[in-house]
Amino acid sequence: MRISKKLEDKARDVVTGSKSNEDRTSITAIIESELELTLDHLQSLRWLHKNQLMTLLEAECVIGTELLGIERRTRRYSPEMFPERERFIGRLLKIDQERRRNTSSYEEKLLNLQDRLLALLNKHRHLTPEDGN
Prior knowledge:
The protein is mainly alpha-helical. The chain is 81% helix and 0% strand. The protein has helices at 3-16, 27-73, 81-127. The chain is rod-shaped and about 75 Å long. It starts with a helix and ends in a 6-residue tail after the last helix.
């Protein structure tokens, strides 16, 4: 199991195991609320990234279909095939650049949220009494 998955599972355990009737203004309760918010941000970030990738994939499929159509309706070495084909290939390259940029941004944001989650879990661990250790 990946460390990030373990980290998120631990944070979920802390959030679900928190006492709902406890004073919500205590430092521990505030940290638990921040943990919950950070987990929600992680989930939203993953959902957004997945949707962005799906949108880019759909665009690639449409362009790929158009490229196949160009090849079918024009003769093999027809001069009118090349400019249109190059335009579609250029669009594919732009989609690839956007995917790389999105993935880089996603990874950076994901790491920042995971760092925040780790810091909050460490604070929570220091503020709560040990269970039998």
